[in-house]
Design goal:
By secondary structure, this protein is an alpha+beta fold. It is about 45% helix and about 20% strand. It has 20 helices and 22 strands. About 35% of the residues are buried.
Length: about 625
């Protein structure tokens, strides 16, 4: 079960509210969830296998986990909703619809505005507040604006010429702008302004006023009115406590940079807010910075410049500290965006809260990346750089292995290791296509349409057996031809399972593609020696060397992945060699045979009378002829 591979990562999660995201081996977000305590909630998945088919499928597919810490469960709920809308994870079935949590809309585009419930924020000149969770809380707040400020709730066209106010005025839920003698346009405009301030979160003055009215009504023994003021005050207090930094329409489009700089390096978390919602989080890492020589200001300035070299620029960018030459940076951002861009250091309010949240997540990412295990990995990578005389520390290592039995069903595998951690989502497997195909005989197409050797056709063999060298060259060539088309990322070091022959094959593929700058090393299984290009003798590392352990771990993982795929390929070959080689038997009829008889052995033993209902006379005779042919020979 794939989820068990994440046990160590789950044990290091914080016991704070937030959102967790599961990813599959293609890097796609497959599930987004929220939790009151992240560690407890995610750890419960370790024992959840068998609870439901959907959960089982999720646990089998998940290979990577990320978390985002929030201030409260309500904020986690809002962020979960935003991420699901943006990423459409496969297993978030219940929330994958077009609805959203409600906002309150103050229709300031109208002459006499109203307060309405809206499902989304639009750029229409009106004022929006929210979202509100649960939805009933939005309607309760809307009703409160009627009682507190007399905002109208009707759809009537207001001219001020009505003879008398309606019942809403009599029960003190409307200021009656429909009768100009009762409420002038100016008076109603003041009520609208008070409502706007209230919806924008300036609630302290409202609470003080309601408390005074409640006490006054109680002193006068008007207990019903005192109860109304008490309930209204509690609603306003709840609204104030539930103001959300993760999703508020007043924040609009902006990015917030959270920074954590420590002795091991720096981590930057960029929270991207669009239309009042946090829709994405981008993590940037700087391993070469140190607090002794680099300041947080330098790190922030470099992050802003590098991030917006490849990303769209919002109208506002929030950073924790002032950057050098702020006006010049703003001008550069404005040129890239084609409009005015403001670089701002918020001091208070929702904008400051969003920035603090980004900084907290940067600190969490820093602790995870530069933990004790991470420091061991960093030491191993530095030793590897020194021993192999590499130009840079090999943060990204890619390892290849070939698996075959007598040259049949030859497959290759690729595993990726970044900063000492295996990146399962970037593993790749290859079915080697170039072996056993020199002649025109014995070739056929697999179900995927690619040409491959026939099961009965042996591969080319040299003195040492199957041509693993050619297989290695083909797999390496296909891998980096694809990376050239995609634009990277390229590894700092390539490891091949084998000695000088496999290493020479890898370099031959590099030269074919014009990638002579790539560096490869081979590791021989017998003596665990490292072979480098041009060196007369292999490199021998102590058995206790962290660098050797890292190379061995990558090699063993590549071997495991290759063997697993090779076994699957052999099963596919054996399955196809029996039924797919029978003329007229395709996928549909093959499935019908297996559903009827249960196994290939039972199909082989079936009589003509048993085959007739499934295949008909002609195909039944073809199946019998196929399975009796060896006996006749």
């Amino acid at each position: 079960m794939a989820i068990r591979d994440l046990r160590d990562a789950i044990a290091r999660l914080p016991e704070q509210p937030g959102v967790y995201l599961y990813f599959n081996d293609r890097g796609e977000t497959i599930y987004v969830g929220r939790a009151r305590a992240l560690r407890d909630r995610v750890r419960s998945y370790l024992g959840a296998y068998g609870s439901s088919p959907k959960t089982d499928a999720l646990l089998d597919e998940a290979v990577r986990l990320e978390v985002i810490v929030t201030d409260s469960v309500v904020e986690a709920l809002a962020l979960e909703n935003n991420l699901i809308k943006a990423r459409s994870p496969r297993y978030n079935i219940l929330l994958r619809d077009d609805k959203n949590y409600p906002y309150l809309q103050l229709t300031t585009a109208e002459e006499f505005p109203r307060v309405l419930v809206a499902r989304e924020v639009a750029r229409d000149g009106n004022v929006y507040a929210g979202p509100f969770m649960p939805a009933a809380f939005a309607r309760k707040t809307m009703s409160l604006t009627h009682r507190l400020f007399g905002i109208r709730s009707c759809n009537e066209v207001i001219t001020g010429q009505r003879d008398r106010p309606c019942l809403e005025y009599d029960i003190k839920r409307c200021a009656a702008p429909c009768v100009s003698e009762v409420c002038s346009p100016e008076q109603y405009a003041e009520s609208v302004e008070q409502t706007r301030l209230f919806l924008e979160g300036r609630t302290d003055d409202v609470i003080d006023s309601l408390r005074s009215q409640m006490r006054e009504a109680a002193d006068e023994e008007r207990y019903e009115r005192a109860a109304q003021c008490r309930d209204a005050m509690r609603t306003v207090e709840t609204l104030r406590d539930r103001q959300q930094k993760m999703a508020t329409s007043r924040l609009g489009d902006r990015d917030a940079f959270g920074v954590k700089l420590g002795p091991a390096g720096g981590v930057i978390q960029v929270f991207q807010m669009r239309r009042g919602r946090v829709v994405e989080r981008v993590e940037l890492v700087a391993d070469d910075v140190r607090p002794a020589t680099d300041s947080e200001r330098d790190l922030v300035q470099a992050a802003v410049q590098q991030f917006y070299a490849t990303h769209d620029v919002p109208p506002e960018v929030h950073v924790p500290v002032e950057v050098d030459e702020r006006e010049e940076v703003e001008r550069w951002l404005s040129v890239r965006a084609g409009r005015r861009v403001k670089l701002h250091v918020p001091k208070r309010g929702d904008t400051r809260g969003l920035l603090e949240l980004a900084s907290r997540n940067a600190g969490l990412a820093y602790d995870s990346r530069y933990s004790e295990d991470a420091q061991v990995h960093a030491g191993a990578l530095e030793e590897l750089r020194r021993v192999l005389d590499l130009p840079v520390t090999p943060h990204r290592v890619e390892c290849f292995d070939i698996s075959t039995v007598q040259g049949r069903e030859t497959v290759g595998s690729l595993v990726v290791c970044e900063d000492g951690r295996m990146q399962r989502g970037e593993y790749r497997k290859f079915r080697v296509q170039g072996l056993g195909m020199a002649g025109g005989r014995g070739r056929r197409r697999s179900r995927a349409g690619s040409r491959r050797p026939d099961a009965a056709t042996p591969a080319r063999e040299g003195p040492a057996g199957p041509d693993d060298f050619a297989a290695m060259e083909e797999v390496v060539l296909r891998r980096y031809r694809g990376l050239l088309e995609e634009g990277g990322p390229f590894p700092d070091l390539v490891v091949v399972d084998g000695g000088k022959g496999q290493l020479t094959s890898a370099y031959r593929a590099f030269e074919t593609l014009g990638l002579s700058n790539l560096v490869a090393v081979g590791i021989a299984k017998r003596d665990e020696e490292l072979y480098t290009r041009g060196a007369p003798e292999p490199v021998r590392l102590p058995k206790t060397s962290p660098a050797l352990h890292l190379i061995q771990r990558a090699r063993d993982e590549a071997h495991r992945f290759a063997v697993t795929y090779h076994r699957r390929a052999r099963r596919m070959r054996d399955f196809e060699s029996e039924l797919d080689l029978i003329p007229g038997i395709g996928p549909r009829r093959r499935r019908a045979l297996l559903e009827r008889f249960g196994s290939l052995a039972n199909v082989r033993r079936a009589s003509r009378e048993e085959l007739l209902p499934v295949l008909g006379a002609k195909l039944a005779d073809a199946v019998l002829k196929h399975f009796t042919r060896p006996m006749q020979a």
